[in-house]
């Protein structure tokens, strides 16, 4: 009975060390494997380097971001869907 | 006393107070998991953004007028191609259609002109293979397209909300006439000349343009990430201090611990042994809690595709993209975070232990009597 707590603790500490070791090994794998290569090829092919995560990734339309996910856009910049003329796509000259 | 003996005794003391140490460990686990998610995600996103920007164009030239952005003449690309230092100029045909569904429409030169077949990112709503996909063009007309395929999830990072279509379809959707492009993407020969090329580009075109460079894009990302990181640090610091305080109170143990230390000293424990014992019991709990928290953070960012963190930090909701992020520097972040979390916690445990260890055993046992 007296040995049980420390054996359990040793097991838990050992498992935690093993899990951290797996993380480090996975980190080394991530550095070696070209996980990003498909995305980089896509960027090279289309000459588009916009991350879907960033709201101001598109310098042509600052603050536009990914419009359907407007809530991640910067709050101080005007959302184009609200009628701001600056961020309409270039060919819009429609007068109704 | 031998270190192993101290460890055994510390484990026994932890097992005797499961609630106290369990809650303490839970607090540490939560703080380390949240801090780990935020810092690992920020670090990974910064490195990923760098690599994506390096793969993209060096400069992007957009025509501007008093009303905002205007289409640029494709023929003007030739004026830029003759500038020394410019390797390639590509007119891009693309734009954003507001919804529903809202999509970023990109003209793909590899898709056959005259076809209505498109490729969609996973995040474009209401799109199913084989089912006609209707989009409103900017003039209000309905364009019916056929979904030929979906972009693989490995492209979520850059293609999650993207619609790839033949250029003529994109022109129809965006009312972009033939001979006009959205902007011009430029690849320079040497990245260090980009800033000089900006001036060359501006003087080569006889209308106002805005030229974005990789470095401005990088600055934009860094500013945004710095903002997020700063907010996270603001939250992390008080949480860490609070946890250290809790650990200090737990380690102090109250009158019961005073009596225990008194008895241990009567049994021959030195001050050093007492400090080691208190540190060992805190270290066992803290190491496991911080370790598990960081493992959870790692799994959330790098194994689960970052989706839980993206949902949490960027507000994407359940339909977050699966991001394959660059792991450069992540191990270092783990090490830094471990030191940042364990350092104050062990210090908080050591201070009361040193105080108790230096106290006279008789006064420690006064309450007992």
What is the strand and helix layout of this fold?
The complex is a heterodimer of chains A (96) and B (369).
Chain A: H1 4-32, H2 37-46
Chain B: H1 3-16, H2 18-55, E1 59-65, E2 68-70, E3 72-73, H3 77-81, E4 86-92, E5 94-97, E6 103-107, E7 117-120, E8 132-136, E9 142-150, H4 156-159, E10 162-165, H5 167-174, E11 180-181, E12 183-188, H6 194-204, E13 209-213, H7 214-252, H8 254-266, H9 271-303, H10 307-314, H11 330-358, H12 361-364
Parallel strand pairs in B: 6-10, 7-9
Antiparallel strand pairs in B: 1-2, 1-12, 1-13, 3-11, 4-12, 5-6, 7-10, 8-9
Helix pairs in contact in B: 1-9, 2-7, 2-9, 2-11, 7-11, 9-11
Instruction: Give the CA-based shape of chain B.
Output: elongated
**How many runs of DSSP E, i.e. beta strands of chain A?**
0
Low-confidence stretches of chain B: none
> Structural class given helices, strands, pairing of chain A?
mainly alpha
Helix fraction of chain B, binned, reads 55-70%
Q: N-to-C terminal Cα separation of chain B, in Å?
A: 27 Å
Q: Give the integer mean of the pLDDT values of chain A.
A: 61
Number of helices of chain A: 2
By oligomeric state, this entry counts as heterodimer
Strand content of the residues of chain B, in percent? 15-25%
For the largest interface, the chains and their residue counts are: A-B, 67 and 95 residues
Low-pLDDT stretches of chain A = 55-96
User: What share of the residues of chain A lie within helices?
Assistant: 40-55%
C-alpha Rg of chain A (nearest Å): 25 Å
Q: Summarize the main sheet of chain A.
A: none
SSE arrangement of chain A, N to C: HH
| Main sheet characteristics of chain B | 6 strands, mixed
How many beta-strand segments of chain B?
Answer: 13
Globular, elongated, flat, extended or rod-shaped: what is the shape of chain A?
A: rod-shaped
Strand order of the largest sheet of chain B: 5-6-10-7-9-8
